[in-house]
protein-serine/threonine phosphatase (Ureibacillus terrenus), 248 residues
Amino acid sequence: MKFTVESDVGRKRVINEDRAAFLERPDSLKLALLADGMGGHNAGDVASEMAIQEMTNYFLQKEFQNPSIEEKRQWMEESIANINEKIYNYSLENEHCKGMGTTFIAVLIDKNHCLIGHIGDSRVYHFTSNSVDLITRDHSYVNILVDSGEISEEEAQNHPQKNLIVKALGTEPTIEPDFYELTLKEYSYLLICSDGLSNKISTDEMAAIITYPMPIAEKGRKLVQLANDSGGEDNISLILLMMTEEEV
């Protein structure tokens, strides 16, 4: 598996409240993590940093022995619940962090199988040579309106409250992530990104860069550059993974 990680402050923000990481254990289990923090003065980066560090610790310390999908999901669910509680309690105990929270994506990769835990409006896309699929569904106000039939998918794209999320890690005492499963095929790509990227670049523009023959690190840099060229109003973070032939 090839991968690249990018995180950029963007052109309008002073602080980067995004965090992203890619981890691999000696047993070849891999974990991709992305968090987009929010809330309070300087608190968004506290929430996202806590989320990534805590999940990293859980992943590296966990003893897995050929875990089933259910075992992996249970581990991820329990880990996210514990992290949520820690961030929530920290925000109560520290006035400058009151109300902080973060989006969160964890992708546990075992060979070519991916288990995805998702909270908020950061996204996971799956690209092949001729298709693109948005795997996650934003926990957003506009998606509630779409689900209830009040607005269309097209109207949601330009809705004034498009960025209002209804679920974040650490803002409530408990959390229920969404879970997805995906099998990565040979030469397919997984893109994990914050809304600083997905709000500025269309899926066609993403696909044009991701499927172009150039090194994967350059693909990551080109995606960030295009988001900045399109305004760069927010922090921009991504993890791009490619499943290579020898992995399958």
Q: What stands out?
A: The helical segments are 44-61, 69-93, 141-147, 153-157, 195-198, 203-210, 216-229. The radius of gyration is 17 Å. The domain at 2-247 is CATH 3.60.40.10 (Phosphatase 2c; domain 1). The chain has a mean pLDDT of 94.
